[in-house]
Amino acid sequence: MLSRIDLDRCAEVIGRATPVWLVAAFVSCSSVHINSTFKWRGILTGMGTDGGWWSLLRIYTIGHFASAFLPGTVGGDVLRWRLAGPLVGSYLAAAGSILIQRFTGVTMLVMLAAAAVVVDPRLATRPVVLLVGSGLAIVALAWVIALNRRLAIAVTYRTRRRRVGRPLRTLYRLQRVLRTFPASSLVVALGWSFLFYAGVGLVVYFSCLAFEVRIGLVEAISVLVVVCLLTMLPISLGGLGLKQAGDVYMLGLAGVDPAQALVVSLLRQMIHYAYVLIGGLLFVSLPATERV
């Protein structure tokens, strides 16, 4: 990718940066983390438990730190589960809340990505349509499995004497948690997910304005949701490289110069690593017993 982009042009774009919009992008990213914490706490409340807003924000930020060094964007969920279990009084409830949080987030993501492709025909290239279509199919299948109690019981019963039986029994218990989760709380969680992607879209929008890239807010959100769907593939550490390639490709479809698109993407990555650093500092401040 770097071999095909004029790096001198990138340096020129960086030299025209507007500090006000850089700060706005950073603040927008802060709102995204706060949004995710409120969503997580709302899910736990719907399950009849709670861990405290500040404690959950701290754990979420630590999980964000772990995700930066693991494939895909959900690697930090295991660490969040490990830290949130004692806080909420149940590892099963912690796992269920994180699963619901991701489940509703991915559902909203593929819905927004599909809407983006329909609304903006420029984004409807073959790779994008294939990615979004695969995402829709996987999410639809996941909903069927999550809501089909008979299927879960049948799979658990048939594998109860095999090595995979115990993990599947755990998944069945998680499915029971999903089935008892209030429908109203599920709708609220989807609403928080929409606000989450709108907030990350603002980060892209303000990053573009910082480097004099003229793009609409709706276009920025459309590009963002497709790139987010791409970076869920566990083929890079924290989406590094994959995110930049996706930004350059998708912003290019929206008419943005490749050098400008790369600079915008690198700014997003720097903001991301700023919060990774905060999460790392919170992680090393934990007692040694909690970090094991």
What would you say this structure looks like, in words?
By secondary structure, the protein is mainly alpha-helical. The protein has one domain (2-291). The protein is built from 13 helices and no strands. It has helices at residues 7-15, 19-46, 53-67, 77-88, 91-119, 126-147, 149-158, 165-180, 183-210, 217-231, 242-253, 258-284, 288-291. The two termini are 39 Å apart. The mean pLDDT is 84.
Topology at a glance:
Elements: H1 7-15, H2 19-46, H3 53-67, H4 77-88, H5 91-119, H6 126-147, H7 149-158, H8 165-180, H9 183-210, H10 217-231, H11 242-253, H12 258-284, H13 288-291
Helix pairs in contact: 1-12, 2-3, 2-5, 2-9, 2-12, 3-4, 3-12, 4-5, 5-6, 5-8, 5-9, 5-10, 7-8, 9-10, 9-12, 10-11, 11-12
In short:
This protein has 292 residues and is an all-alpha fold. The chain has one domain (2-291). The chain has helices at 7-15, 19-46, 53-67, 77-88, 91-119, 126-147, 149-158, 165-180, 183-210, 217-231, 242-253, 258-284, 288-291.
